[in-house]
Write a structure and sequence with these properties.
The complex is a heterodimer of chains A (114) and B (114).
Chain A lengths: L3 E4 L2 E4 L5 E7 L5 E7 L6 E6 L6 E2 L7 E2 L9 E3 L8 E8 L9 E2 L3 E5 L1
Parallel strand pairs in A: 2-11
Antiparallel strand pairs in A: 1-3, 3-8, 4-5, 4-9, 5-6, 7-8, 9-10, 9-11
Chain B lengths: L3 E4 L2 E5 L4 E7 L4 E9 L6 E7 L4 E4 L2 E6 L4 E6 L8 E9 L7 E3 L3 E6 L1
Parallel strand pairs in B: 2-11
Antiparallel strand pairs in B: 1-3, 3-8, 4-5, 4-9, 6-7, 7-8, 9-10, 9-11
The chains are: A mainly beta (114), B mainly beta (114).
Chain lengths: 114, 114
């Protein structure tokens, strides 16, 4: 079982609210990721980070933002939630460097915007 | 266009039976191929990782095969158990960057009935 945690696990919120999804890992991994996944669809990378103070946008355009102030923490923020943001958000982490690297996933946050 | 296609989309089998899931990819250049198991409402968990030079890898009752020439992979599950009910996701990594990029399939939803 990977030591990567996400809170909350489920969130129902009204349109226009600001939300922050938390992700933390205790493995000391440098690289962290946020994915978005709709039911029956593939995971889409929306943000990733190589380490502290590093953030990059992923393949799928997202209105969310991320920060990486501490190695173990990689929160995702939506300034103004909309129904189109309803989805499952998965956080992952991996070691940094050449060669094969395993990505460890958190349990996910199921977000519903009404 | 780099893609990962999985078949079947869904599969129902009886407990104790074997099954094989398929994955075809067009990702190039190729680095490695992974199979993940994702339980409903949870994050994916890695089952196997195979590089170009490997054509089979086992993890308990799970055996993955890779044919890099035809760009096909399969995941064989032996003596299925109820706990095998999950989505099985094929993921291919390229060598386009130092750290590689992951391309996700949509998964095969496996249901094991008693």
């Amino acid at each position: 079982e990977a030591d990567i945690y996400q809170t909350p696990r489920y969130l129902v919120i009204g349109t226009g609210k600001k939300i922050t999804l938390e992700c933390s890992q205790t493995m000391g991994h440098d690289k962290m990721y946020w994915y978005q996944q709709d039911p029956g669809m593939e995971l889409h990378l929306i943000h990733y980070s190589y380490g502290v103070n590093s953030t990059e946008k992923g393949d799928l355009s997202s209105e969310s933002t991320v920060s990486r102030i501490r190695t173990e923490h990689f929160p995702l923020t939506l300034e103004s939630a909309r129904p189109s943001h309803t989805s499952q958000y998965l956080c992952a982490s991996s070691e940094l460097g050449p060669g094969l690297y395993e990505q460890y996933f958190g349990p996910g946050t199921r977000l519903t915007v009404t | 266009k780099n893609q990962v296609e999985q078949s079947p989309q869904s599969l129902i089998i009886l407990e104790g039976k074997n099954c094989t899931l398929q994955c075809n990819y067009t990702v190039s250049p190729f680095s490695n191929l992974r199979w993940y198991k994702q339980d409903t409402g949870r994050g994916p968990v890695s089952l196997t990782i195979m590089t170009f030079s490997e054509n089979t890898k086992s993890n308990g009752r799970y055996t993955a095969t890779l044919d890099a020439d035809t760009k096909q992979s399969s995941l064989h599950i032996t003596a299925s158990q109820l706990s095998d009910s999950a989505s099985y996701i094929c993921v291919v990594s390229d060598r386009g960057s130092t750290l590689g990029r992951l391309y996700f399939g949509r998964g095969t939803q496996l249901t094991v009935w008693p």
